[in-house]
Amino acid sequence: MQTKNPLEFFRTLPPKQCTECGTHIIEQAESYLLECDRCLSKKDEY
Q1: What is the 8-class DSSP label of residue 17?
Q2: CB within 8 A of 17, min separation 6: which ones?
Q3: What pairs with residue 17 in β-bridges?
Q4: How far is it, in rounded angstroms, from Cα 24 to Cα 34?
Q5: pLDDT digits (tens, 9 = 90+) for 1-46
Q6: Predicted pLDDT of residue 43
């Protein structure tokens, strides 16, 4: 088994999707969020 170049691995990852609504999340470095801003703001209302 050949090891992939680490940079190529990260370049080919699919975009992260919100677990609530399925929209694509634009990530920032060191972001571990699984939900988009819209879904997170809805949770604050409860």
Answers
A1: B
A2: 23, 24, 25
A3: 24
A4: 10
A5: 566 788 888 888 888 899 999 999 887 777 788 899 899 888 765 5
A6: 78
- Phi and psi at 24, nearest 5°, equal -75, 135
- Model confidence, pTM: 0.61
Which runs of consecutive H residues, i.e. helices, occur in 1-46? 6-11, 37-45
Distance (Å, whole) CA 35 – CA 46: 16
Which tokens in the block code for residue 31? Answer: 């972001």
Residue 23, classified by CB atoms within 10 Å of its CB into exposed (0-12), middle (13-18) or buried (19+), is middle
